[in-house]
Amino acid sequence: MNKEIPLISVVIGTRDREARVIKTIQAILDGDYSHFEILVVDQSAADLTEKAVEPFLADSRILYFRSLTQGISAARNTGIEKSRGEWVAITDDDCEPKSNWLSTLVKIFQKLSDVGI
Description:
Elements: E1 8-14, H1 18-29, E2 36-42, H2 48-53, E3 62-66, H3 72-82, E4 87-92, H4 101-111
Parallel strand pairs: 1-2, 1-4, 2-3
């Protein structure tokens, strides 16, 4: 079992859901795994999401990207393309992942070499 702590890139695609996406970001920040980056890919029509995310950008683990594309697949692809992590985890902008979400993923992938998603 690999004992190294991998960097996980968490991709969140969002569009006009500024109140929800900040709850998603906060849930990940409150989790028990700290070696991650969050990539917020914003496809919103206005700048409300950008303004809502801005206070989080003081944390170097959180990256914000404005995208002119539309559709969750395009947002996810953009986030994956810009990610730096060994692994990529994807969540939606209306989810609040449990505090052990990332640490559980790491444990499973490190323990079971034949696991893939």
